[in-house]
Write a structure and sequence with these properties.
seven-stranded mixed β-sheet; four-stranded antiparallel β-sheet; mainly beta
Length: 116
């Protein structure tokens, strides 16, 4: 099974920026879709953004124009650049990656807290 480790979370004031990273390791032949999800307290986990192995991207309406997802295939890493952060972006952010043979894996999450 592929292991995913997120980093880059923290506390930031509204309007600030953070960059999340998610590094994949283990038996990797090819990583297909890589995604970021988030889960706020008392809410369901929601898709924030994904990127395919051909660099097509999708963003949730709530983050469009503020967040940018990117990937480094040589490093098996996906990034989430988050700008103009709002208090409602506060959540635990999870990385998900789909490996060609083993399927999807989840990271343990990284906390993002945006103060007003």
């Amino acid at each position: 099974q592929v292991q995913l480790v997120e980093s880059g979370g923290g506390l930031v004031q509204a309007g600030g920026s953070l960059r999340l990273s998610c590094a994949a390791s283990g038996p990797i032949s090819r990583l297909d879709e890589m995604s970021w999800y988030r889960q706020a307290p008392g809410k369901q986990r929601e898709l924030v953004a994904y990127i395919t192995n051909s660099d097509s991207t999708y963003y949730a309406d709530s983050v469009k124009g503020r967040f940018t997802i990117s990937r480094d295939n040589a490093e098996n890493t996906v990034y989430l650049q988050m700008n103009s952060l709002k208090p409602e972006d506060t959540a635990v952010y999870y990385c998900n990656a789909v490996e060609y043979y083993s399927g999807p894996s989840w990271g343990h999450g990284t906390q993002v807290t945006v103060s007003s």
